[in-house]
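Task 17 of the worksheet. Students: predict the tertiary structure of the chain below and write it out as structure tokens. Keep your answer in the requested format; marks are given for formatting as well as content.
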Amino acid sequence: MIGLSHYLILSGILFSIGLIGVLRRKNLLMLFFATEIMLNAANIAFAAISSHYHDMAGQMFAFFVIAVAASEVAVGLGLLVILYKKYGTLDLDMYTVMRG
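Model answer:
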């Protein structure tokens, strides 16, 4: 039987993968993907704990986090398109070199 600890371990593994992606930060698109993985890991933990304690507050909070993440993706992808058109790359190291 799958218990709360299994969900929390999965959430921890996903959060670690996302954290490694954020710390590497080579490509701006991968940075957005890594933050989404971290947000989804937090949502899994919220939903699992909420289900374990028979309380809907964690699931409601996870729902709002998903809504905020969706708006963040929309704004972030718009900025990515603008940056790619302006500089021709999404490499974060190139953006720091281009400062005047």
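Marker's comment: DSSP finds four helices and no strands in the chain. Residues 90 and 96 are 12 Å apart (CA to CA).
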